[in-house]
Design goal:
3-stranded mixed beta sheet, Hydrogenase maturation nickel metallochaperone HypA, 3-stranded antiparallel beta sheet, alpha+beta, nickel cation binding, HypA/HybF, zinc, hypothetical protein PF0899 fold, 114 residues, zinc ion binding
């Protein structure tokens, strides 16, 4: 389950960035694109297991926001949504330029006393 290693990386990032304030974090929001191969339920389960083992984080919450896949059409010079992994614009031209959908990042950190 690679979600547990992702959760550990999230906490490593939080710890390195916020140092002594990590325990004051109330909620984090993680944004994952559909192509990132992250399953929201599995990452939530991994997060819950991690905070159960690390009780000083037990009050922390996590929300996972899933981004759709967006590609760019060179012909139309516009972005278009990708459905069913079909990277073809409405004009009929294929695209291999992904604008959104393969990302995975911490998008928001909310502290208890802010």
């Amino acid at each position: 389950m690679h979600e547990l290693s992702i959760v550990k990386d999230i906490f490593d990032t939080l710890t390195s960035h916020y140092e002594t304030r990590v325990e004051d974090i109330q909620k984090i929001q993680v944004t994952a694109g559909l192509l990132s191969n992250v399953q929201p339920v599995l990452i939530q389960n991994a997060f819950d297991a991690f905070i159960t083992e690390n009780t000083h984080y037990r009050d922390m919450e996590m929300e996972v926001v899933v981004n759709d896949i967006i590609a760019y059409c060179e012909h139309c010079q516009k972005n278009f949504p990708v459905h069913f992994h079909r990277f073809v614009c409405g004009c009929g031209q294929p695209s291999s330029t992904i604008v959104q959908g393969n990302e995975l990042y911490i998008s928001k950190v909310i502290f208890k006393h802010d």
